[in-house]
Amino acid sequence: MSLLEVRGLGKRYVTKRSFFGRAVDRLVAVDDVSFSVEAGETFAVVGESGAGKSTTGRLVLRLIEPDRGSIVFDGTDVGSLSRRDFRPYRRRMQMVFQDAYGSLDPRVTVHDSVAEPLYIHFRTGRDERLAKAAELLERVGLGRHLFDRYPGELSGGQLQRIAIARALTLNPSLIVCDEPVAALDVSIRAQVLNLMKDLQEQLGLTYLFISHDLSLVEAIADRIAVMYQGRIVEQGTVEEIFGNP
Ligand code: ADP
Ligand code: ADP
């Protein structure tokens, strides 16, 4: 059984409304998209800007709601659950965004930011929360002297490590990574990608990896879906997509 199975996913955005609020124009962002992601693999969704990759990633986590299609996570049709019943599944799927700074609260220290999901979901006590955060921050290679800093004081690479640590706080199995290294200096990219690879092996993580960068996904993915104008136009292993016939 796949960890994630997406079938016939569809999403349109209303791009224009009349004076009275009626939708007069829509854009099909995701059109009949189906794929499965196996536990422990890196499944890349690749395509040019505007292809529908981010929308697909957000639909999987129900950050936005699909118009059609099903999302089966670990054998459960999570797309049809109420928001409340979806919560325990939502903890097991986390997202890492391109803009790490934007995904962290600038008024909260690194240490508290990584600990916070435990409070939000389980009301875990402060000592236990901070111990878990410290363990994760060390795991992502952040020095202790940075734990009490604020996001504005840190580099892009450090911020992305922190965003990754925060995504791991609730012990997820699936991480949707939306262009996680696209905003980083080229010299830092390899470091963060190597870290993600190590974490995947150590923690048994599954990545749904969104990227516009073909050579990057060729290097890191097990399987690839190519999106174009909202649809998957090609899908297969790295060898099938990139191999010379
Ligand atoms: P409306 O409610 O505006 O009349 P419909 O939902 O009946 O629109 O759909 C109009 C057309 O758009 C149909 O051909 C339908 O198959 C297609 N469509 C609707 N939603 C999606 C979607 N999310 N992805 C792809 N096509 C869609
Ligand atoms: P990608 O991640 O491949 O760049 P997106 O999923 O972000 O693609 O966008 C797919 C299409 O949907 C694009 O044409 C984009 O402009 C449009 N789009 C994305 N988000 C919205 C939104 N909130 N409202 C209207 N259109 C949107």
From TrEMBL:
Domain (ABC transporter): residue spans on this chain: 4-245
Entries under Gene3D superfamilies matching the protein: P-loop containing nucleotide triphosphate hydrolases (3.40.50.300)
CDD domains attached to this UniProt entry: ABC_NikE_OppD_transporters
Keyword S-adenosyl-L-methionine recorded: no
InterPro entries recorded: AAA+_ATPase, ABC_transp_ATP-bind, ABC_transporter-like_ATP-bd, ABC_transporter-like_CS, P-loop_NTPase
GO molecular function: ATP binding
Keywords tagged on the record: ATP-binding, Nucleotide-binding, Transport
Top-level taxon: Bacteria
Family the entry assigns: Belongs to the ABC transporter superfamily.
PANTHER family (UniProt xref): D,D-DIPEPTIDE TRANSPORT ATP-BINDING PROTEIN DDPF-RELATED, TRANSPORT ATP-BINDING PROTEIN
Protein name from the UniProt record: ATP-binding cassette domain-containing protein
Taxonomy of the source species: Bacteria, Bacillati, Actinomycetota, Actinomycetes, Micromonosporales
